[in-house]
Write a structure and sequence with these properties.
The structure is a homodimer of 445-residue chains.
Chain A (H helix, E strand, L loop, with lengths): L13 E5 L3 H9 L6 E6 L3 E3 L4 H5 L9 E3 H4 L6 E5 L2 E5 L4 E4 L2 E4 L2 E4 L3 E3 L5 H6 L6 H18 L5 H8 L1 E4 L3 H21 L10 E4 L11 H13 L3 E3 L4 E4 L3 E4 L4 E3 L2 E4 L3 E3 L16 E2 L12 E3 L4 E2 L13 H19 L13 E7 L2 E8 L2 E6 H15 L3 H17 L29
Helix pairs in contact in A: 1-9, 5-6, 10-11
GO molecular function (chains A, B): NADH dehydrogenase (quinone) (non-electrogenic) activity
EC number (chains A, B): 1.6.5.9
Organism (chains A, B): Hymenobacter nivis
């Protein structure tokens, strides 16, 4: 589409932010009282709280509770403009981005496009696996999961049945561990009543991790505890194993083991989601832009990158910061102040990552946390870690309404041991690996 | 699909219920302690509370809060079986229904398939109008509504702009009146902040009613008050007018008036949704099955019909009962007891409709209610009617969780004058009546 985007010209410097994840949203908020026009472009009209997508997928939380429409979150900010569009390319010489709704001029461009699932070039795997990067992914996985069980009711053949009831999760990071735990809770507390007719001992949950430990990057204590917790909850953990291939029905591990499943959840690493048009020399490993300590993209004066898509090499983090919420949030907040400093003729301040630690939840009263506090690191597990995890995640949500709603839902689910949002609305991913045979011969009418 | 549905044979009489709306759900619950096997078949795995769909469509309520998965609502009921399927035909001689998952034998068959939008044979209208009969409809309308406004930001041409910002609602019953009121509230309280760049005086809401009054069937006082309220809220009400044609862009009224809109909401009457296979003589006007005072379909011993799909002619209701929740609920409850009586060799009890009155909400503190109480009828309006409407609808929800969630959301929305769920997830209905031109010439980059 040619033409120009229709947007007010305020006669102020225009900061165009591409992507409203943790970094982009924090930056937009940080620019609230700076004399610039803030234009946020995103392909969705809402910010999604990615760390809780697995709970949406497992019927524990409503999608509504973890999204915040940008126009609501930032609606009171007078210099804020939002456009629902995708950015297709950047022309840094003309200082223009090309979008699906036309061209848009910028004075400062900030790329906060985040990361996307990395299938390392395996197109067959990419086509057959499900991912957990967006709200639509989470809802589609919820629908698939529930539809599998509805379809399983009609099956007699043991292998066909297992293909629907068994789940393979690839990747032993927080998402993989939390997903495995949540599926195990459904198996223990929810499905036995919902699917009385099925033998739930047939439902296997496999977690495949390429390295020797789960939650790589957390403490050895956290890794060991998460493994012990998952095993206690009946999750089959495959360490030092990779999924070599998956055709929608059979997952073959590097160990030679074959797992039959129609639902393989890919949580095994991400790659940057760059925008076309910048100098290829600005792009580093993992498709992340090389940025300096001010998040400025290498080779550009007025183009910045934040969060997952930015590769800032520091002494403490020679391979860049972890691709999680905290670095993005902190970089977004600092960049807002730095743009104000730039406009005021002051020097920008360098970024220093304040690592507050990390945590993962596994199930009811089960979590692990490495908390950094005044230079000391504490390792929590069990109920205390679980409460800490819950509190941190509730407080991190974007608005009060979400916080109240999520806290209420968690309290309700905890008390009732229930996950009540198990309805199928909208698209069900078609059954992979061929259709399910009807069990005419074995049926009892 | 041939073959038989795989389901336990309990050696008890099997009651197959087709459709889990108000009537089907009430019947299933009513059979909890009756020595029968209850099999509920529905194309969704949840009960949807239809009277609040318009609030889902206007971002006031989450879909999650007005649906109840059948397996959760009835999971503790030992004789309850659910199958996610559609019934394709009935073979009353063999006592079998053909479904998308195979054949299913029944001893008693209860049709509770409800009603669907009636376009009176106008295929062009049907293709271009949006309806509000399902949760998917409501979410799609919400997406369309919000996407319209996002797209409108790029438009300069006045007619194109109005085609996106204007809404035409056809039908002045409760759904039409409530929808018009909810859109008016978005215009007054939510969109002015979200869409500062648009002139919201351009947003027109038209309500087209074929007869001389709104809320036909309610008291004259309620009709007059709802008209006055809607006018006060800036809704343009067209009485004694019909939409003769709609091509996705231009709606032509019977008065000759033309209204430009890409969003025409059809709330103008329903028709039964029967199942193939029964004797055509059993089918009455409006595609409703003739039933006797025990909801037994004319000409059949063990086939019943409930609610919207049933036409029970009585002295008080010579044209059948109104197609709303209460008759369906009451018939469902009674039929459960009557089936128990049949099995016990007792006589069935005839149905007597207990009309508790009717109500409709228009906006903040604005509602009308005709309440029947010990033979007296009271007419309420304003704040009192609005509180009564809210209380009745919260209590009518299927489970405690929904009641708490809806009450909390309404209290929050009331206090904040906000409707916070304005995100676009999933399918956006493509723009009707051709694409929107980009305003290249008029754009300011």
């Amino acid at each position: 589409m040619d033409g120009l985007t229709k947007i007010d010209d305020l006669g102020q410097p225009r900061v165009v932010i591409v992507g409203g994840g943790f970094g982009g949203l924090a930056l937009a908020q940080s620019l609230a009282n700076v004399p610039v026009q803030v234009v946020l472009i995103d392909k969705h009209n809402y910010h999604a709280f990615q760390p809780l997508l697995y709970q949406v997928a497992t019927a524990g939380l409503a999608a509504d509770n973890i999204v915040a429409p940008f126009r609501k979150a930032l609606g009171k900010q007078k210099n804020f403009y939002f456009r629902l569009a995708e950015v297709q390319s950047i022309d840094a010489t003309a200082q223009v981005v090309e979008t699906t709704i036309g061209l848009l001029r910028y004075d400062y461009l900030v790329l906060a496009t985040g990361a996307t699932s990395n299938f390392f070039g395996d197109a067959v795997m990419e086509q057959n696996a499900v991912t957990l990067k967006s709200v639509s992914d989470a809802l589609e996985l919820r629908n698939t999961l529930l539809a599998n069980f509805e379809q399983a009711l009609q099956l007699g053949d043991r292998e066909q049945l297992n293909s629907l009831l068994d789940f393979v999760i690839v990747g032993g990071g927080p998402t993989g561990v939390e997903m495995a735990g949540a599926l195990s809770e459904l198996r223990a507390h929810v499905f036995p009543q919902d699917y009385r007719e099925l033998d739930l001992k047939q439902m296997d949950i496999h977690l495949v991790q390429s390295g020797p430990v789960l939650l790589k990057g957390m403490s050895a204590k956290a890794s060991a505890q998460s493994l012990a917790d998952l095993k206690a909850m009946g999750v089959e953990v495959w360490l030092d194993a990779k999924v070599k291939s998956y055709d929608g029905y059979t997952a073959t591990l590097s160990t030679g083991q074959k797992l039959i499943t129609r639902t393989l959840i890919w949580a095994a690493g991400v790659t940057g989601a760059p925008v076309a048009g910048l100098d290829p020399a600005s792009m580093g490993p993992g498709k992340r832009y090389f940025v300096d300590e001010h998040n400025r993209v290498a080779g550009y004066e007025n183009v910045f990158a934040l969060g997952d898509i930015a590769l800032m090499k520091t002494t403490a983090h020679p391979d860049g910061h972890p691709q999680v919420a905290q670095p993005a949030l902190q970089q977004g907040r600092l960049l807002g102040r730095n743009i104000a400093r730039l406009l005021g003729g002051e020097l920008m301040q360098p970024f220093h990552y304040d690592d507050k630690g990390s945590m993962a939840t596994i199930g009811r009263n089960r979590a692990v946390a490495d908390v950094k506090f005044f230079g000391h690191e504490f390792h929590l597990s069990g109920l205390l870690a679980w409460l800490a995890w819950s509190l941190v995640h509730v407080l991190a949500l974007v608005n009060y309404r979400s916080r109240i709603a999520v806290a209420f839902t968690w309290a309700w689910n905890y008390w009732s041991r229930d996950k009540g949002l198990r309805y199928i609305i909208g698209r069900i991913k078609p059954l992979l690996g061929g259709s399910v045979d009807t069990p005419a011969g074995k049926a009892i009418v």
